[in-house]
Design brief:
The protein is an alpha+beta fold. Helices cover 42% and strands 24% of the residues. Strands 1, 2, 3, 4, 5, 6 and 7 form a seven-stranded mixed β-sheet that branches. The chain is globular.
Length: 191
């Protein structure tokens, strides 16, 4: 299944890589929802780390990135839900955000499956609805758009790591392993 995300990527010379990365990210969301009962809100540090581990297992170059994120708030001119201190109008939500970057065909893409849970938490806990154009999974070469802004800030990595260290290695391995198994089963079925 080629999603709308992939159809927006320009000059796709190897669409299978894009489809595979997107499918891995969606499978990771499913596994997280099974383990955390539908809402792993506040788990960007875990999701970015696990996705990077999974993509590296498949031989792709990826890394966990921590920094700031701004999400455009629905029905406002220029207000954002902000993770990290960003010089934009809006609501300060948290100290940082973590996502993943992957290299495909020598180009770096942001891939952020945790955005689905950010959107749910913003609505549930802050009564903030973000712009409808913000997807549940960002997969883009663009870090800075009108509707979202990703800004790497390595000084925030220690905050992300402090939360990641609270998660047991067994739990992290479970998430990574289940996602890899799901992918491998789908590959076997397709062969």
């Amino acid at each position: 299944m080629i999603s709308k995300l992939n159809s927006k990527l320009p000059n796709v010379s190897n669409s299978l890589e894009y489809e595979r990365v997107e499918k891995i990210s969606l499978d990771l969301q499913e596994i997280l929802e099974e383990i955390y009962y539908k809402s792993p809100a506040g788990g960007c540090y875990l999701i970015g780390h696990c996705l990077s581990e999974i993509l590296n297992e498949y031989g792709l170059v990826s890394r966990k990135v921590t920094g700031k994120l701004a999400l455009h708030i629905k029905n406002t001119n220029d207000k954002y839900a902000k993770y990290g201190i960003i010089n934009l109008k809006g609501h300060y939500i948290g100290n940082y955000h973590t996502w993943c970057e992957v290299v495909i065909n020598n180009e770096t893409y942001i891939i952020d499956p945790s955005l689905k849970y950010n959107k749910l938490a913003l609505k549930q806990y802050f009564d903030i609805k973000v712009n409808n154009k913000i997807p549940n999974l960002v997969f883009s070469k663009k870090a800075n758009t009108y509707i979202y802004k990703y800004i790497e800030d390595i000084s925030l990595e220690c905050q992300s790591m402090s939360f990641l260290k609270r998660i047991s290695t067994c739990r992290i391995n479970e998430i990574v392993t289940k996602t890899l198994e799901k992918q491998n089963n789908e590959i076997r079925k397709a062969s």
